[in-house]
Design goal:
Largest sheet: 8 strands, mixed
CATH architecture: 3-Layer(bba) Sandwich
CATH class: Alpha Beta
Order of helices and strands: EEEEHEEHEHEHEE
Number of helices: 4
Oligomer: single chain
Strand content: 25-35%
Radius of gyration: 13 Å
CATH topology: Glucose Oxidase, domain 1
Structural class: alpha/beta
Shape: globular
Strand order of the largest sheet: 1-10-9-3-5-7-8-2
Distance between the termini: 6 Å
Helix content: 25-40%
Number of domains: 1
CATH superfamily: Phosphohistidine domain
Number of strands: 10
């Protein structure tokens, strides 16, 4: 059964991908560090403090999370991941996006040919309804379909 959510469009675009869900915040630097430094094209999550994501590929997934946490380099890390083709298919936030993650997502769409659709304010119900592996569809208007 499909579940439909509506959020605020931060970066427009469409996406179809499998969900990768984190119930905790995403430490962008810790998660992408090895992928950016050592050439891991799957962008395997290297943040051992995030058991939901650790060891799982971040590239090409619909990354579902409450928020980002950690380093002030977070925006640049997202941009670099996109520039290297190792970004998630989309970023889906249950809470309002922070300015650093927003900057990285927006600059990825402006400075590369690969926009990373980003939707926030999907609500806590979104994270309650989505599970890793679920099919996700993102529409231009901020509609997110789970299932």
């Amino acid at each position: 059964m499909e579940k439909i959510f509506h959020g605020r469009v931060v970066v427009p675009g469409t996406a179809h991908a499998k969900a990768l869900v984190s119930r905790g915040g995403l430490n962008t630097l810790a998660s992408f560090q090895k992928a950016l430094m050592f050439g891991d094209k799957k962008a395997t999550c290297s943040d051992q403090n995030n058991p939901d994501l650790y060891g799982k590929p971040l590239a090409g997934c619909a990354l579902c999370l409450p928020q980002t946490i950690g380093s002030t380099t977070g925006g640049m890390v997202l941009f670099c991941a996109t520039k290297m083709g190792r970004q998630p298919a989309c970023l889906l936030f249950s809470k309002p996006i922070d300015s650093l993650a927003a900057a990285g997502a927006i600059l990825s769409g402006v400075w590369t040919d690969t926009p990373m659709p980003t939707i926030d304010n999907l609500g806590d119900e979104f994270l309650d309804a989505v599970s890793t592996g679920d099919a996700i569809t993102v529409a231009e208007d901020g509609t997110v379909i789970v299932g």
